[in-house]
Design a protein that fits this description.
The structure is a homodimer.
Chain A (H helix, E strand, L loop, with lengths): L11 E3 L2 E3 L6 E5 L7 H14 L3 E5 L3 H13 L4 E4 L4 H9 L4 E3 L8 H14 L3 E6 L5 H7 L3 H17 L5 E6 L3 H14 L5 E2 L7 H17 L5 E3 L6 H14 L7 E4 L10 H11 L9 E5 L5 H4 L5 E5 L3 E6 L2 E7 L3 H11 L1
Parallel strand pairs in A: 3-4, 3-10, 4-5, 5-6, 6-7, 7-8, 9-10, 11-12, 12-13
Antiparallel strand pairs in A: 1-2, 13-14, 14-15
Helix pairs in contact in A: 1-2, 1-9, 2-3, 3-4, 5-6, 6-7, 7-8, 8-9
């Protein structure tokens, strides 16, 4: 993997997972079912873990949700984060039920005394706290002072931070999500300048699978390329497993994580096979190799295919109802179109 | 739109479209059918133009393709670019048939004399030339000198440029596409430092609709954010109309073009309506407003919805089989779930 400039941040730990301090960038997602609906929550936990999710967040909206943490922790070994609004008692209950991290905003979680009790319990159990600012729910006093922009986002985040710091607590992570990319980029850049807590990157309310992925890829991708960000969540109005898949693609493409890359040409006047369907089938079939550091090329044209995909480990190049199988730029064999995919899979399995 | 740092480049013109020199970033795509197949090519031209494509490229592989240019130009008023390999005569034929731009690499388009004739004709007709370097087809001599990296990409591009400059021709645009993002980023950054010709950005062999969009959004997005790039093409192994849609999303999200933005929350334990399906339907229905500078929010939850989507012009927030319609953060009315979308569309049409 490439040598990357990364802004130095203080590490925190969610269970065994280190965030910040030079640790690999971790992938998070969130349950979309009610936390206390144990069968549904456990099913989604298993699916997310299988998809490569490394940290799971869920809403804790009531005591039932907080009490679900114990059985959820027993059924899955991923670190879990409770997302709590306006009630420090639910945060304390979550810690006592075994949560690994909290996402709360200390400024609106309860009375000063409530916050002090919560921080005392968090200290005792070494539970890090994510301060999560969201462009859609900014404090009114800051909005009227600074307007709807990065200053309000950053001041809101740092005012929550200050409450924890004043209580001598520094196991902090910060997010500053916006649905507007310019605001999201500006807020994270400013936070990265102003403090060294690890940052949790995300674009909020990003949209559907395709449009939300595009938006998240731009926003998260730009910041990671600038060395900003320690853990990421892609938010989509879709199944959270897809959020994990998209997050992986972002990290793999930026050279921040090893994994399978598929390159495939746009079809053109030269293409004589059904390339679009073929590459979709290849992509689906290759999910079993998702963690292998492999580049696989699927090219439409037998003339330029192997050359254009010289960087690929393995590949196929289409012709007239047939195609070439190649490895590291060399042609291995010519096979009928229907055998291209099975031959490719054989080759990868044997490698 | 935001004030953006943009690297200053020399402008060129493809038909009426200015590229570089501070012009808006234009969107290109390429025909995937054989150019000389007139009914298919004309159908695809119409589809691409309707999708918002601003410059059309197609392969010219033989004289039939070159002769198709005249009827294609008669049927569609978009600027057209002929993509030609290894045969300067096809390039001359394309110009004489009315093409607006060429994509050729002068170093491998024919003899010195051939290149001179071609450039003379291009000068006469003021036809700009894109030099297009591709990581998969780099010259062997440079590969053995510099290895497979940005130096070979950049030297290859600049050696083609030098041929045109030596002939006194400067109507040049450059691309340096790679399927590997790190190589793509490094090559364009270096080209942007070393010359002031406008740059055509793209990730080559990017992949399927979703994975290719993610990859293109990262690569093109990072460079545009750095002020690099004057025109873009998203390459997907899919229908070229989708390339145009994805390219638009990249520009709109970066604030480089006006257009419709849809924000929608990831579902969570609070969501009581079928948000995923609803937002997909909203996205499809709103395509008629694609050019309007509007932000539309589709939120799962009636409690936080309007607040979280304060930045949106219009929106809907789901509840229990019903939902709220809001405008600029204010609730307008409460309607049954089935009427959310029609009410939203009414509201936008009246705005």
């Amino acid at each position: 993997m490439k040598e990357y400039y990364r802004k130095a941040t203080r590490p925190i730990y969610l269970g065994d997972i280190k965030i910040g301090g030079g640790a690999p960038i971790s992938i998070q997602s969130m349950l979309s079912v009610k936390t206390s609906n144990l069968p549904a929550a456990q099913k989604q936990l298993r699916e997310l873990q299988a998809a490569g999710c490394e940290i799971i967040r869920f809403s804790v909206m009531d005591l039932d949700d907080a009490q679900a943490i114990k059985p959820l922790k027993q059924s899955c070994d991923l670190p879990m984060v409770a997302d709590i609004h306006f009630d420090y008692k639910l945060a304390i209950a979550s810690i006592l039920n075994g949560i690994d991290g909290l996402r709360i905003n200390p400024g609106n979680i309860g009375s000063r005394q409530g916050v002090e009790s919560l921080v005392a319990v968090a200290k005792d159990h070494k539970i890090p706290i994510r301060i999560g600012v969201n462009s859609g729910s900014l404090p009114k006093d800051l909005l009227s002072k600074y307007g709807h922009g990065k200053d309000t986002m950053v001041e809101a985040a740092l005012s929550h931070v200050k409450i924890l710091e004043d209580l001598g607590y520094h196991e902090i992570k910060i997010s500053a999500k916006a649905s507007n990319l310019e605001l999201m980029l500006a807020s994270y850049r400013e936070l990265s300048k102003r403090c060294d807590y690890p940052l949790h990157l995300g674009v909020t309310e990003a949209g559907t699978l395709l449009s939300g992925s595009i938006k998240s890829a731009i926003g998260i991708g730009i910041l990671l390329e600038e060395g900003i960000g320690d853990t990421i969540r892609v938010s989509l109005s879709d199944d959270p497993q897809k959020e994990v898949w998209v997050a992986r693609q972002i990290l793999i493409n930026l050279g921040l994580r090893k994994g399978l890359k598929i390159v495939s040409c746009p079809t053109c006047g030269r293409t004589r096979i059904d390339l679009i369907r073929l590459v979709q089938k290849v992509e689906a079939a290759l999910q079993e190799f998702a963690d292998r550091e492999l580049t696989i090329a699927v090219m439409g044209c037998a003339v330029n295919g192997p050359g254009e995909a010289r960087e690929a480990d393995f590949g196929i190049a289409g012709g007239d109802n047939e195609g070439l199988i190649f490895a590291h730029g060399e042609i291995i064999k010519k096979v009928p179109e229907a055998e291209l995919l099975p031959e490719l899979l054989n080759l990868i399995r044997q490698a």
